[in-house]
Structure to design on (322 residues):
């Protein structure tokens, strides 16, 4: 790593997400990108191609997910460390409570700190095998994300974010309970939340209004919307099934028309409509004052870059060295 890159990395590592999204940026609003740990060497090479492309676009931050039940723990810690030390990207590491003791959680936070990562996304996490299955607390762990936020804050000078759910978390009995839980996490010390991917902007706006009504002080904290350009209807349906979220009927109808009547969906047409839908959502979110746009990239850069280009982010040259 060059001296200039090392210096930039050190500066990025000390910055919080709140500072990053408030900093000057290209385009109408800051954006950020979510990656996930690859399963093999080929997938890891693809991830790094996407990382380098996005790095040239200057996202406010990037995040790296954590496999259900810690199934990708070692790979996640390694790659998060490489993102933090070998790029200029501000890196957020996901930290989940499921299947981990307090001692293991402390060790994970320490491992991230050793790589200069001070921004963590505190998540309760999904059970391994069946994300919609029964959630079982580790006998020596924590049960709720609010407790995880408190643990992170108690360990030193860290910045914690949490998840939020525009449609309500699938385990919450209703939207009131879901809102109360988000407020509880924010009161515990979370500085912002990042939403689950959604396809109806009204759901995001109603979430924002609910939090402000429940606690104006906590409602002032950023709620960063999660977006994903749909490139496969089958994959989008599977993702929403596993997350307990939904694809709005009007959105699904547009995608179904694009898919066609053949035995296989028309992927090119689906992709075109998916990028249109994501662009429309992004434009409305910008108009409604969203503090940042967080893109679930699936470790690919092209579709997200097309949306960014359409909303006024300069993506020229990002693919030049690929």
């Amino acid at each position: 790593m060059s001296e200039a890159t090392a210096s930039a990395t050190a500066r990025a590592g000390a910055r919080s997400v709140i500072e990053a999204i408030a900093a000057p940026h290209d385009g109408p609003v800051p954006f950020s990108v979510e990656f996930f740990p690859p399963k093999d060497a080929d997938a890891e090479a693809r991830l790094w191609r996407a990382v380098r492309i996005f790095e040239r676009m200057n996202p406010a931050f990037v995040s790296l997910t954590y496999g259900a039940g810690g199934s990708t723990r070692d790979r996640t810690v390694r790659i998060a460390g490489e993102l933090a030390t070998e790029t200029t990207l501000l890196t957020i590491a996901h930290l989940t409570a499921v299947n981990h003791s307090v001692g293991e959680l402390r060790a994970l936070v320490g491992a991230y700190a050793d790589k200069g990562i001070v921004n963590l996304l505190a998540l309760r996490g999904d059970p391994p095998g069946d994300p919609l299955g029964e959630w079982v607390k580790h006998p020596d762990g924590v049960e709720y994300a609010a407790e995880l936020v408190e643990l992170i804050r108690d360990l030193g000078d860290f910045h914690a974010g949490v998840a939020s759910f525009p449609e309500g978390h699938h385990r919450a009995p209703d939207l009131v309970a879901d809102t109360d839980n988000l407020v509880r996490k924010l009161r515990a010390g979370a500085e912002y939340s990042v939403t689950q991917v959604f396809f109806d902007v009204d759901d995001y706006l109603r979430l924002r209004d609910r939090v402000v009504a429940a606690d104006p002080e906590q409602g002032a904290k950023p709620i960063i919307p999660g977006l994903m350009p749909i490139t496969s209807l089958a994959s989008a349906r599977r993702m929403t099934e596993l997350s307990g979220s939904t694809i709005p009927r009007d959105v699904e109808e547009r995608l179904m028309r694009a898919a066609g009547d053949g035995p296989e969906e028309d992927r090119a047409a689906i992709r075109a409509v998916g990028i249109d839908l994501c662009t429309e959502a992004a434009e409305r979110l910008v108009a409604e004052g969203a503090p940042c746009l967080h893109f679930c990239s699936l470790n690919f850069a092209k579709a997200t870059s097309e949306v960014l280009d359409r909303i006024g982010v300069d993506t020229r040259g990002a693919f030049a060295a690929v």
